[in-house]
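Here is one chain, start to finish.
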Amino acid sequence: MRSLLIFTLVGVGAQLVDGALGMAFGVTATTLLVLSSVGAAQASAAVHLAEVGTTLASGLSHWRFKNIDWPLVAKLGVPGAIGAFLGATVLSSLSTEHAAPLMAAILMAIGVYVLLRFSLRTPLAIGGQGTRHGAKFLAPLGLFGGFIDASGGGGWGPVTTSTLLSRGKTAPRTVIGSVSASEFLVSVSASIGFLIGLRDEFFQNWPVVVGLMVGGVIAAPIAAWLVSRISPALLGTGVGGVIVLTNSQKLVHFFDIHWPWSTAIYTLIVVAWVSLVVYAWRASRAPKTVPVSAADSEVLPR
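Its structure:
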């Protein structure tokens, strides 16, 4: 019962992040599970099995509101499923000693990406009608995103959503809806890969799966409220820093780095993180001024 409560709280925290940012459920949940002493492969397997339910519900919701481009889902989701199965197979075949630093390195890289994306990003220009992405672009993106997602315990959203939005060819709501729908295929494929690789261990993590699902359902309406109260830039910068700091500790221990170098590494990360949080906070509070044309300035009172 105690472990179920802990994993439910992990699900709440991960869904709050995902609901406010539109990504990072897997990265956040896996990081918190690994910190709770859950094995690397077991944590990723539990997260993906829980996501089978959450992504199905998300995909159906986006379908109802016509946010899905089905050709985009097929071209992105099928290669993503293949990559996820390969990533799950690779992670399942590694020993705990080797799987932990691999996952920590992948999660840290994704954390750095999230940290920089939400603190230093520039506004995206989205075309009115937009053009569809070709299979030559979507297939490698899906394959890479699926492999990283399964082997690292998360990363489908940060890799695919951010890349598609940065291309500026598809409306944001269509990108988010299509990526969410295609993630169902990724989660199912990764779960099958972990089932084959972990066998009996796969069914030993039911408290983790149930906890994540229950926590996600509880936190969904709270996340909707949170996104209207906290700047996504500020929240994303904060979460990205937590992911980087926690996973850097695992890498420092793995490579047996001692004082004073370990302290120097942590200090550098914290200083950079705090600086980016301050920058994001100031940017979120900056007044949104509208440029005044020369003609308008002539009629303004002095």
